[in-house]
Amino acid sequence: MMPIHEKLMIQSVKAYAVALPLTKPIKMAHAVFETVENVIVRIESEDGFVGWGEAASAPSLTGETWQGMVSLIEGFIAPLMVGRDARLRSSLMSHIGAHIFGATGSISAVEMALIDLLGHRYNLPFAMLIGGMCRDHVEPMWILGNGSMEADLADAQFRHGKGYRSFKVKGGTQSIDQEIEATMRLRDVLGQDVKICIDANSGYDLAKARRYISATSAARVEFIEQPFPRQDIASLKALAADGSIPICADQSVHDIADIHLQSTCGVSGIALKLNKLGGVTAALHAASICEENGMKIIVAAKVAESSIASAAIMHLASVIPSVEWGVSLTHPYLAVDLVKQPLELKDGKSFLGNKPGLGIDVDMDNLDRYRIR
Ligand SMILES: [Mg+2]
């Protein structure tokens, strides 16, 4: 641990793209994921401390490809950082923000690595550097995206046995009748004590959404996420006016202005993702705006980020006062993780621990093996 008055000069900022296989394909409306391409950021200080960050490339969500992210981070962001003092994190991120519009995934990964670096230098957990902890653990949800009812039911029962008590169904992947039946069966199989929500990933129209909601009312679906494409404001307002179920906005929310718009449309909450909002500072700002507007929050990693970004999500969720709609960690969907000890789940809980920074130890062999060159 080093004294705070000594400068922490940044020596290098590197970006690595990796292609990571999932344990099995995840089916969503409009997309099936089998392999993900993520970008890993490594920042090293002149005195040898290292911080790590990660963001999934998500062209349809953030407009960023892994090729573009690597190029932007190494060719454009690194020169803005190298030779500067990492302790001045806020002014450093403002300096970067003044030169780039958007690129929210790249900026999030860089900010994550910067905070992790500070954590290692000052021997503080990530959560301590981004605000006061409200809890020392999270209870993550499990995503059901197998593409068939039988597979989802078996998956849900297995994960329920592992301690999961909150489930998100990926909608818009089958006929609406099949999805209604699947939700009703899921409630039967899991019992009354678990939470069930549905994420339509823009895959419904107003008639389908209304039909699903009315036919599954006995299953007590907690909320419906992103029922419509973001431009379909009319359907969103109509569904919200029904008052039949709370609506969560995901793809429709990329910044604070989006949150205000969704709020005026009657949306009840948002999915907070680091790669979408542009990092921890922006996400915390968004969370406080939600609180002011009486909106709920789900804190989610992007499917599928490794234990590096999932750790950041866990720390972020630990400092947000209310995460009523839950937390989604995505490293369990990966067949390969990039850390030596992936985040664990014990009785449905993942604990932050007391290691510095993100609390992870990057597996350099896996980083090298799965790197896209
Ligand atoms: Mg979503």
Structural notes for this entry:
This protein has 373 residues and is of the alpha/beta class. The chain has two domains: 10-123, 2-Layer Sandwich (Enolase-like, domain 1), CATH 3.30.390.10; 130-357, TIM Barrel (Alpha-Beta Barrel). The chain contains 14 helices and 13 strands. It has helices at 59-62, 66-81, 89-97, 104-122, 126-130, 149-161, 176-190, 206-215, 233-242, 256-264, 274-277, 280-292, 307-319, 364-369; strands spanning 10-28, 31-45, 50-56, 137-138, 142-144, 166-170, 195-199, 224-225, 247-249, 269-272, 296-300, 327-328, 350-351. It has an eight-stranded parallel sheet with strand order 5-6-7-8-9-10-11-12. The two termini are 35 Å apart. 50% of the residues are buried. The structure holds magnesium ion. Magnesium ion is lined by residues 199, 201, 225-226, 250, 271.
Bound molecule types:
magnesium ion
Largest sheet: 8 strands, parallel
Structural category: alpha/beta
Return residue spans where pLDDT drops below 50 for at least 5 consecutive residues.
none
Helix content: 25-40%
Number of strands: 13
Q: Approximately how much beta-strand content do the residues carry?
A: 15-25%
CATH third-tier fold name of the largest domain: TIM Barrel
Envelope shape: globular
Average pLDDT metric: 96
Write the layout of secondary structure elements.
Blueprint lengths: L9 E19 L2 E15 L4 E7 L2 H4 L3 H16 L7 H9 L6 H19 L3 H5 L6 E2 L3 E3 L4 H13 L4 E5 L5 H15 L4 E5 L6 H10 L8 E2 L7 H10 L4 E3 L6 H9 L4 E4 L1 H4 L2 H13 L3 E5 L6 H13 L7 E2 L21 E2 L12 H6 L4
Parallel strand pairs: 5-6, 6-7, 7-8, 8-9, 9-10, 10-11, 11-12
Antiparallel strand pairs: 1-2, 2-3, 4-13
